[in-house]
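Structure ticket #2291
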Amino acid sequence: ADRLATPEPRRLARWLGAHAFAEGLVVLALAGWWYAARQMPEFVLPGPLAVAERVLDFFIVAGIIDDSLISTTRVAASVVIAVTLGGTLAFIPRRWPVAEAIIHERVKPFLNSFPSVGWAILASIWFGPSNLSVIFVQVAILTPFCLVNISEGLKELDLELLEMARSFTRNRVRVFWRIIVPLLMPYVVAALRIAYGVGWKIALVSELFGAESGIGFLMLRALTASDAVTLFAACFAIVLIFIAGEKLVIEPLSRRFQIR
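Resolution: structure written out below.
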Protein backbone atom coordinates (compact mmCIF):
# COMPACT_ATOMS: atom_id res chain seq x y z
CA ALA A 1 0.00 0.00 0.00
CA ASP A 2 2.87 2.36 0.84
CA ARG A 3 4.46 1.71 -2.54
CA LEU A 4 1.21 2.51 -4.32
CA ALA A 5 0.86 5.78 -2.38
CA THR A 6 4.29 7.16 -3.16
CA PRO A 7 3.76 8.24 -6.81
CA GLU A 8 0.98 10.71 -5.89
CA PRO A 9 3.08 12.87 -3.52
CA ARG A 10 5.92 12.79 -6.02
CA ARG A 11 3.61 13.93 -8.80
CA LEU A 12 2.27 16.70 -6.59
CA ALA A 13 5.80 17.76 -5.69
CA ARG A 14 6.80 17.88 -9.36
CA TRP A 15 3.69 19.92 -10.19
CA LEU A 16 4.37 22.38 -7.37
CA GLY A 17 8.03 22.62 -8.33
CA ALA A 18 7.23 23.28 -12.00
CA HIS A 19 4.69 25.98 -11.14
CA ALA A 20 6.97 27.58 -8.55
CA PHE A 21 9.75 27.71 -11.14
CA ALA A 22 7.43 29.21 -13.78
CA GLU A 23 5.99 31.83 -11.41
CA GLY A 24 9.49 32.62 -10.18
CA LEU A 25 10.59 33.38 -13.73
CA VAL A 26 7.61 35.71 -14.15
CA VAL A 27 8.47 37.55 -10.93
CA LEU A 28 12.11 37.76 -12.01
CA ALA A 29 11.10 39.17 -15.41
CA LEU A 30 8.86 41.78 -13.75
CA ALA A 31 11.66 42.77 -11.39
CA GLY A 32 14.06 43.13 -14.31
CA TRP A 33 11.48 45.19 -16.19
CA TRP A 34 10.93 47.44 -13.16
CA TYR A 35 14.67 47.97 -12.72
CA ALA A 36 15.26 48.70 -16.41
CA ALA A 37 12.31 51.13 -16.50
CA ARG A 38 13.86 53.15 -13.65
CA GLN A 39 16.89 53.82 -15.85
CA MET A 40 14.86 55.03 -18.86
CA PRO A 41 12.26 57.71 -19.58
CA GLU A 42 8.63 56.58 -19.55
CA PHE A 43 8.09 57.21 -23.27
CA VAL A 44 10.81 54.62 -23.98
CA LEU A 45 10.11 51.96 -21.34
CA PRO A 46 7.28 52.54 -18.84
CA GLY A 47 7.23 50.70 -15.52
CA PRO A 48 5.07 47.62 -14.89
CA LEU A 49 2.81 49.39 -12.37
CA ALA A 50 1.91 52.17 -14.81
CA VAL A 51 1.23 49.61 -17.53
CA ALA A 52 -0.90 47.46 -15.18
CA GLU A 53 -3.05 50.48 -14.30
CA ARG A 54 -3.57 51.26 -17.98
CA VAL A 55 -4.41 47.62 -18.73
CA LEU A 56 -7.33 47.90 -16.30
CA ASP A 57 -8.64 50.81 -18.37
CA PHE A 58 -9.23 48.40 -21.25
CA PHE A 59 -11.81 46.61 -19.08
CA ILE A 60 -13.33 49.36 -16.91
CA VAL A 61 -13.21 52.67 -18.84
CA ALA A 62 -16.27 53.10 -21.07
CA GLY A 63 -14.66 54.35 -24.28
CA ILE A 64 -11.75 51.92 -24.17
CA ILE A 65 -14.03 48.96 -23.35
CA ASP A 66 -15.84 49.66 -26.62
CA ASP A 67 -12.60 49.38 -28.57
CA SER A 68 -11.72 46.13 -26.77
CA LEU A 69 -15.14 44.66 -27.57
CA ILE A 70 -14.92 45.79 -31.20
CA SER A 71 -11.55 44.08 -31.68
CA THR A 72 -12.78 40.91 -29.95
CA THR A 73 -15.92 40.80 -32.08
CA ARG A 74 -13.90 41.26 -35.27
CA VAL A 75 -11.54 38.45 -34.36
CA ALA A 76 -14.39 36.10 -33.40
CA ALA A 77 -16.30 36.85 -36.61
CA SER A 78 -13.18 36.42 -38.73
CA VAL A 79 -12.35 33.07 -37.11
CA VAL A 80 -15.88 31.71 -37.69
CA ILE A 81 -15.91 32.89 -41.31
CA ALA A 82 -12.40 31.55 -41.97
CA VAL A 83 -13.21 28.11 -40.50
CA THR A 84 -16.41 27.97 -42.58
CA LEU A 85 -14.67 29.09 -45.77
CA GLY A 86 -11.64 26.86 -45.21
CA GLY A 87 -13.90 23.89 -44.54
CA THR A 88 -15.91 24.59 -47.69
CA LEU A 89 -12.74 24.75 -49.79
CA ALA A 90 -11.54 21.50 -48.22
CA PHE A 91 -14.79 19.72 -49.09
CA ILE A 92 -14.89 20.85 -52.73
CA PRO A 93 -12.26 18.34 -53.98
CA ARG A 94 -13.96 15.57 -52.02
CA ARG A 95 -17.26 16.27 -53.75
CA TRP A 96 -15.71 17.10 -57.14
CA PRO A 97 -12.28 15.41 -57.48
CA VAL A 98 -11.55 17.43 -60.61
CA ALA A 99 -11.08 20.45 -58.34
CA GLU A 100 -8.22 18.82 -56.38
CA ALA A 101 -5.48 20.55 -58.39
CA ILE A 102 -7.28 23.90 -58.31
CA ILE A 103 -7.74 23.96 -54.53
CA HIS A 104 -4.51 22.35 -53.34
CA GLU A 105 -2.08 23.38 -56.08
CA ARG A 106 -3.39 26.85 -56.93
CA VAL A 107 -5.66 28.35 -54.26
CA LYS A 108 -3.84 27.01 -51.18
CA PRO A 109 -0.30 28.07 -52.26
CA PHE A 110 -1.63 31.50 -53.26
CA LEU A 111 -3.38 32.10 -49.93
CA ASN A 112 -0.43 30.72 -47.95
CA SER A 113 2.15 32.91 -49.64
CA PHE A 114 0.30 36.19 -50.16
CA PRO A 115 1.79 38.74 -47.70
CA SER A 116 -0.35 39.94 -44.80
CA VAL A 117 0.57 43.58 -45.40
CA GLY A 118 -0.52 43.17 -49.01
CA TRP A 119 -4.00 42.10 -47.91
CA ALA A 120 -4.14 45.04 -45.48
CA ILE A 121 -3.18 47.59 -48.13
CA LEU A 122 -5.61 46.13 -50.67
CA ALA A 123 -8.44 46.15 -48.11
CA SER A 124 -7.79 49.81 -47.25
CA ILE A 125 -7.97 50.65 -50.97
CA TRP A 126 -11.05 48.58 -51.74
CA PHE A 127 -13.15 49.11 -48.61
CA GLY A 128 -11.60 52.08 -46.77
CA PRO A 129 -11.50 52.24 -42.96
CA SER A 130 -14.33 49.90 -41.92
CA ASN A 131 -15.22 46.68 -40.16
CA LEU A 132 -15.42 44.98 -43.54
CA SER A 133 -11.83 45.96 -44.30
CA VAL A 134 -10.51 44.49 -41.04
CA ILE A 135 -12.54 41.28 -41.29
CA PHE A 136 -11.54 40.82 -44.93
CA VAL A 137 -7.83 40.97 -44.04
CA GLN A 138 -8.18 38.54 -41.16
CA VAL A 139 -10.30 36.06 -43.12
CA ALA A 140 -7.88 36.14 -46.08
CA ILE A 141 -4.95 35.32 -43.76
CA LEU A 142 -6.72 32.74 -41.57
CA THR A 143 -8.48 30.74 -44.29
CA PRO A 144 -5.42 28.75 -45.47
CA PHE A 145 -4.72 27.57 -41.89
CA CYS A 146 -8.26 26.22 -41.68
CA LEU A 147 -8.10 24.73 -45.17
CA VAL A 148 -4.94 22.77 -44.36
CA ASN A 149 -6.26 21.43 -41.03
CA ILE A 150 -9.66 20.34 -42.29
CA SER A 151 -8.14 18.85 -45.46
CA GLU A 152 -5.90 16.69 -43.30
CA GLY A 153 -8.93 15.64 -41.29
CA LEU A 154 -10.74 14.55 -44.45
CA LYS A 155 -7.73 12.43 -45.42
CA GLU A 156 -7.89 10.64 -42.05
CA LEU A 157 -11.58 9.73 -42.20
CA ASP A 158 -12.31 6.08 -41.48
CA LEU A 159 -13.37 4.79 -44.92
CA GLU A 160 -14.71 1.51 -43.50
CA LEU A 161 -16.97 3.43 -41.11
CA LEU A 162 -18.24 5.58 -43.98
CA GLU A 163 -18.91 2.46 -46.09
CA MET A 164 -20.82 0.92 -43.21
CA ALA A 165 -22.87 4.11 -42.80
CA ARG A 166 -23.74 4.10 -46.50
CA SER A 167 -24.89 0.49 -46.21
CA PHE A 168 -27.52 1.64 -43.69
CA THR A 169 -28.63 4.75 -45.59
CA ARG A 170 -28.09 6.36 -48.97
CA ASN A 171 -29.01 9.77 -47.61
CA ARG A 172 -25.78 11.74 -48.06
CA VAL A 173 -26.94 14.59 -45.82
CA ARG A 174 -27.57 12.16 -42.96
CA VAL A 175 -24.17 10.49 -43.42
CA PHE A 176 -22.54 13.92 -43.49
CA TRP A 177 -24.09 15.17 -40.25
CA ARG A 178 -24.09 11.88 -38.32
CA ILE A 179 -20.70 10.47 -39.37
CA ILE A 180 -18.42 12.88 -41.22
CA VAL A 181 -18.97 15.97 -39.06
CA PRO A 182 -18.35 14.19 -35.70
CA LEU A 183 -15.19 12.56 -37.11
CA LEU A 184 -13.95 15.92 -38.38
CA MET A 185 -14.71 17.95 -35.25
CA PRO A 186 -11.26 17.41 -33.62
CA TYR A 187 -9.65 18.85 -36.76
CA VAL A 188 -12.18 21.69 -36.91
CA VAL A 189 -11.44 22.56 -33.28
CA ALA A 190 -7.70 22.45 -34.05
CA ALA A 191 -8.29 24.82 -36.97
CA LEU A 192 -10.34 27.04 -34.66
CA ARG A 193 -7.53 27.10 -32.09
CA ILE A 194 -4.89 28.04 -34.68
CA ALA A 195 -7.10 30.65 -36.33
CA TYR A 196 -7.95 32.23 -32.97
CA GLY A 197 -4.29 32.54 -32.01
CA VAL A 198 -3.15 33.87 -35.39
CA GLY A 199 -6.22 36.12 -35.58
CA TRP A 200 -5.11 38.12 -32.55
CA LYS A 201 -1.59 38.36 -33.95
CA ILE A 202 -2.82 40.00 -37.13
CA ALA A 203 -5.73 41.96 -35.62
CA LEU A 204 -3.59 44.98 -34.85
CA VAL A 205 -2.03 45.06 -38.32
CA SER A 206 -5.44 44.98 -39.99
CA GLU A 207 -6.80 47.66 -37.65
CA LEU A 208 -3.77 49.89 -38.12
CA PHE A 209 -4.42 49.97 -41.87
CA GLY A 210 -8.18 49.83 -42.09
CA ALA A 211 -10.08 50.86 -38.97
CA GLU A 212 -11.13 53.90 -36.99
CA SER A 213 -11.83 51.90 -33.84
CA GLY A 214 -10.46 48.92 -31.96
CA ILE A 215 -7.30 48.23 -30.00
CA GLY A 216 -5.12 48.62 -33.10
CA PHE A 217 -6.50 52.11 -33.67
CA LEU A 218 -5.80 52.96 -30.01
CA MET A 219 -2.21 51.83 -30.51
CA LEU A 220 -1.87 54.00 -33.60
CA ARG A 221 -3.04 57.04 -31.62
CA ALA A 222 -0.68 56.14 -28.79
CA LEU A 223 2.19 55.87 -31.28
CA THR A 224 1.56 59.36 -32.63
CA ALA A 225 1.46 60.70 -29.06
CA SER A 226 4.57 58.73 -27.97
CA ASP A 227 2.38 57.08 -25.30
CA ALA A 228 4.41 53.96 -24.56
CA VAL A 229 2.24 53.11 -21.54
CA THR A 230 -0.83 52.62 -23.75
CA LEU A 231 1.20 50.68 -26.31
CA PHE A 232 2.41 48.21 -23.69
CA ALA A 233 -1.01 48.06 -22.04
CA ALA A 234 -2.75 47.28 -25.33
CA CYS A 235 -0.43 44.32 -25.92
CA PHE A 236 -1.04 42.92 -22.44
CA ALA A 237 -4.79 43.52 -22.73
CA ILE A 238 -4.81 41.41 -25.89
CA VAL A 239 -2.93 38.66 -24.04
CA LEU A 240 -5.61 38.65 -21.30
CA ILE A 241 -8.48 38.63 -23.82
CA PHE A 242 -6.81 35.82 -25.73
CA ILE A 243 -6.34 33.73 -22.58
CA ALA A 244 -9.98 34.30 -21.61
CA GLY A 245 -11.20 33.09 -25.01
CA GLU A 246 -8.84 30.13 -24.89
CA LYS A 247 -10.01 29.04 -21.43
CA LEU A 248 -13.73 29.77 -21.85
CA VAL A 249 -14.33 28.63 -25.44
CA ILE A 250 -11.46 26.79 -27.12
CA GLU A 251 -10.49 24.42 -24.29
CA PRO A 252 -14.08 23.30 -23.53
CA LEU A 253 -14.60 22.58 -27.24
CA SER A 254 -11.29 20.71 -27.36
CA ARG A 255 -12.31 18.53 -24.39
CA ARG A 256 -15.75 17.94 -25.89
CA PHE A 257 -14.44 16.75 -29.26
CA GLN A 258 -11.10 15.23 -28.33
CA ILE A 259 -10.07 12.03 -30.10
CA ARG A 260 -10.42 9.04 -27.79
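Closing remark: The radius of gyration is 23 Å.
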